Structures are given as C-alpha cells and as structure tokens.
Amino acid sequence: MAAMSHAGERQVEWLTSGRQGLARMLEAIGAARTSVVLEIYILQDSEIGAVFRHALVAAAARGVRVRVLVDAVGSLELPADYLNPVNEAGGDCRWFNPLELGRLSYRDHRKLLIVDDAVAFVPGFNIAREYDGDGVEQGWRDLGLVIRGPLVAELLRAFHGMFGAASFRHRRLSRFRRHMRPQRVDTPQGDLFLLSPGRGRNPARLALMADLARARKIRLTTAYFLPPVALRRALIAAARRGAEVELLLPGPTDVRVAQLAARGQYTRLLKAGVRIFEYQPAVLHAKRYLLDNVVYGGSANLDLRSLNINYEILVRLEDVELAREGHAAFEEDLRRAKEVALASWRKRSWWSRVMERLASIILVRLDLRFAMRQLYRLRVKEGRRAFQRKRRSAPAAR
After folding, report:
1. 340 phi and psi, to 5 degrees?
2. Alpha-helical runs (H) found in 178-319
3. Which one, of 195, 221, 336, lies nearest residue 286 by Cα?
4. pLDDT, tens digit, for every residue of 336-388?
5. Residue 301 CB-half CA count within 13 A
C-alpha cells in the first residue's frame, strides 16, 4: 500500500505527463504562502515559460520568498533579462555555472520545484513548449513525481547547496568541493541520490545494480541509453537468470547521436533475452525505472553524461502502489511502441552499424574524456591555489 501523510494525502504520486505536471506545478506556485524554489535545466521563452514567469512574479509580489536557479547552457537561448521581473518583484534568480570554457561540460540537469517547504515536484521535463503535451497527440512523452514527507527537506537542502554554488566560477572551487562528489541521502521515506561530476564510486549506480541483481521484473524507460559497462552487464545477467527485462527507448528522438549510440548495444542485449521497445507517437523524454516494487525517478537518464558528468537528482522509493501504477503506465506505453526483433535487427545496413560505432566513440571517448579532463584540471588548479594559500598563511621560519 502506498505511504500516506498524516492528512490522508499520498506522500508520493506520479505526474503522468508533461502537460499535467506543468499544470500542477503552476497551481502549487499560485497557492504558495511562504516559499517557492525552482531549479530547471531549460526555461524557454515561450507561452508556457511566460506563464511560469508570471506565476513567480505574482508569488514574489505577495511576499512569498522566491528563488530560481537556471542552467546557463540548458537555457542558452533564454534572454539574459528574462527573469528580471521576478527579481524586481522581490525574487532571487541565478544562472548556474555561467559560461566558461574550462567548466562548460558541467551542467545542472536537475529539475525541481519545492513549495512552502512541504511539497516537491521532481519531474523529468523542462519548462518548454515541447513538454506541454500528453506525449501521444501533442508534445513529448514525459512524467515525474510529486513528493511529500521526509524527502522534501533533503531535496530543499540539495537545492540550497546548488543555489549557493550557482556562480562558482567567481569563487574558490574548494568552497563547493562537496558538490563535486556523488552523494546518497537515506530517509525513512526513500533514498535521494545527488549525482555530480567525477569517476569512482557512484551510489546511484551501485543501488541500481543491487536492485537489478535481485529483481524479477525490470522495466526501464529512458530518453538516452548508454549505461556504463557494469550496468549493461547487470541487465544481461538479469535476463540470463530468467528475470523479465524490458527497455522502453525513443523511436523519434531529439538527439540522433544518442540514439545511434544506444542502438549500437541492441544486439548484445537482445541476444541475452532483453526485450527492447521504441516509443512511436512522439519523442520519449521520460525517466522511469521499475524493479519489482522499487521505483526510481528524477532527472537522470541511463547514460554516461547523467551518471558521470551532470548534476542530477534521482530518488529511490519502495512503494507497492506507486510501482503498480508505474508498471501499468509502462504497459500502456508499450501499446504505442514497436518491439525490436533480433532477427530483423541483424539485417540492418552496414552504414547503420558504422554510424552506431561512430556515435559511441563521440559520446564515450570524446564527451566523457573531455569532461574528465576538465575536472582534473579544475582540481589541479584548486590544489595549487590551496598550496599557495597555505604557504602565505604559514608563520615565517625563525
């Protein structure tokens, strides 16, 4: 049975589409009494963007404390003064990691809205026209979660950490060193994973692999599928031991190179017994990971950029009712998807195979290595600064 709050409300609910999710977010901002915090990757100068801006201005004008964090690259096309009305009404809007070549790779891909410190929206969608639809007749296919309970305080703490680090190019990197390590926060309600740049132990990846090792029904929906080798092997191992493993991936796509790289893995997965489906009506942008009665949701895709480079939010919940609803929605999406058969997949052209290989090289060897090199240089640079500060503050030898 799904967890309930003291008032009888469900603590966690699905946002079933981008249209429904955006509408509920606007409703919550309109009803806010004390505070609104919004963290978003893409805020678009569009009709839906203007509606959100108006709602934020109105909230700030009636005395609500409004804070907004927008990624500088994700919202590159947004006019620099777009959020000035919110600031003029009393809000505080910032750009995350303003453009600088040495830190260009590290983006805030998180999506989060928290109202009155009581309810959190953790969507996979951004605030842009393509997300304002049902994913069937109009707009992209997307979803998210609404959360009340202990996780909200941790999500709020995570927002304030990123908000404080928003313009860290102007400050000493050591002040925000903790933001450059992946974190896991455990609560009685569920687990919060705060992903951030860097290699090494990744708590979200470790949790996923542990759940994959014991789950009997594994249903993963992701917009971009290029998992680390260990995670891909865990999927193959699960299928070979008899687990039901199904992947729902995009048919139409907004990032062709990512789809090509994903398709380059199909043969090995299909041979192991993994079933792969491609969603047909629209671009699939959802992130929904179902492993028996365990649900993962948030901003992170199952690709190397989400798991190694970007700042991301992922929550893990053990909730029977939420999982049941998630499996039902997955099955509904499958009715609008085309299954990839191994026999026909093997007959694809040699040119398709070449393009898949090239896409993998671009995303694995170039993008990831470039980002890791930037991170290494940042850490070396900060290490030198720390050494110089230590030398300057050391007492003179006597």
Report:
1. -90, 120
2. 203-214, 229-240, 256-263, 266-272, 304
3. 221
4. 999 999 999 999 999 999 999 888 887 775 544 444 444 444 444 444 444 45
5. 24
For residue 183, the 8-state DSSP code is E
Residue of 179, 329, 354 whose CA lies nearest to 261: 354
Q: What is the pLDDT of residues 206-216, one digit of tens each?
A: 999 999 999 99
Contact status, residue 266 vs residue 198, Cβ threshold 8 Å: no
Q: What's the whole-number average pLDDT of the chain? A: 87
CB of 251 closer than 8 Å to CB of 215 = no
Q: Is 67 helix (H, G, I), strand (E, B) or coil?
A: strand
Which of 232, 182, 186, 189 shows the shortest CA–CA distance to 209? 232
d(CA 249, CA 273): 16
Q: How many other CB atoms are found less than 10 A from the CB of residue 185? A: 18
Tokens of 300: 């992170």
Residue from 105, 110, 97 nearest 313 by CA: 110
Contact 131, 15 (CB under 8 A): no
Interacting residues of 378 by C-beta distance below 8 A, sequence separation 6+: 102, 103, 173
The pLDDT of 184-196, averaged and rounded, is 94
> What pLDDT, on a 0 to 100 scale, did the predictor assign at position 170?
38
**Per-residue pLDDT at 167:** 59
At 177-189, the pLDDT tens digits run: 444 566 899 999 9
Q: What is the pLDDT of residues 152-172, one digit of tens each?
A: 999 999 999 999 888 554 344
Cα dihedral 300, 106, 361, 231, rounded to 10, equals -30
Q: Residue 42 has what pLDDT?
A: 96
Helices and strands in the chain: count of H runs, count of E runs = 13, 18
**In sequence order, which ranges of 33-166 are alpha helices (DSSP H)?**
47-61, 84-88, 150-164
Nearest to 36 by CA among 51, 45, 44, 25: 25
Domains of the chain (ranges, CATH numbers):
12-345 (3.30.870.10)
